[in-house]
Amino acid sequence: MASKQSLIDSILILADSSLILAQRLGEWCGHGPVLEQDMAMTNIALDYIGRSRLLYQYAAQLQGEGKSEDDLAFLRDVGEYKNLLLVEQENGHFGHTVIRQFFLEAFQFPFYDALQNSQDQTLKEIASKTIKETAYHLKWSTEWVIRLGDGTEESHQKIKTAITDLVPFTGELTQAVSCEKELIDQNIFPDYDEIKRKMDALINTAFKQAGLELPTQVYMHQGGKKGLHSELLGYILSDMQFLQRAYPGLEW
Amino acid sequence: MVIEQKNTKEYIFSLLEEVCDPEIPVLSILDLGIVRRVDLLENQLEIDITPTYTGCPAMSLIEATIKAHLEQMTQKTVIIKTVLSPAWTTDWISESGKIKLKEYGIAAPQNQARIQNILFQKEQVACPRCESLNTVLVAEFGSTACKSLYKCSDCLEPFDYFKCH
Lengths: 252, 165
What we know:
With 252 residues, chain A is mainly α. Helix content of chain A is 67%, strand content 0%.
């Protein structure tokens, strides 16, 4: 059996990545380029909050220290957060947000699809709920990649910039850290090489249609899964955790 | 005699039929298909429900409403458990639920909820008001997590479509 700590840490990678992305997408609320896309991004954010809740509940239950999902979300500091570096990147312009979403979904769709066959019953159940929502998110982000890439000269240029800016954060997605490796060995997590193959296929298909290219020979940043973050995460947490820090135990 | 009648599953289901989705009040939670199990014990009532969408904000309200309504009507302690598996799907919305949706102005999910359909199928959705198939998708994500926004090109009315999930 994989150690309990590895299971908890790997779940926190997923949970933290979901919550931080939800927080980032939520920043678009009231600022979207058009009303429909404002609603799309906040709808997706809501799915991600729901997903992070399920994952935090499971992690808290495994910890068995009497902590709640809220304790895990609101009372851990930057170094304890294990989210992917990709999701803490700024919203930038709409093209940045689209590309950030697309890269993540291209990983998550094959990942959660495979997680439906996990040896862990709870992760299997969470994956079976998540996969349908992920399919809608993948569809949304893929359509926008194509629309912006194959759109006007300006939209093409902007999404190209976004790709250059964000590709360096995609290596981490399929680079298993030690806790994940343990889970992969136990068939709790799927094999990341296989996921990477499917992820690359999704990206290449969309980019081909969009007239875009994936840069090669890129230096890939790593560390998010181990709690090594850019300074961006501190700002996100100070905003997101303010209420619980200022008024401990406050409830809705 | 009255007590005996009240102590049946039929009675419990008739009470559950009275609990509505707060965002689509024409649908009962039975129409939605989120009640997965009812266990009637001597002093206790156990009910399993399953969430529609993971982030659906209506779920906690639905849970509280079931508990309040059933405890008041049966004088039993109601215990509600959330189960994730099997995952909820729009395939479980009842036929009468689909009719109620249409009368309410929301196009009902029309295909089986399969991942391949979600990803690759362009859905031809009929306008719930004039039945025309001449409709266009305005936005994949609509007023709530479960709906997308369409417009009818014939009667020009915008409408919600309860998307396959």
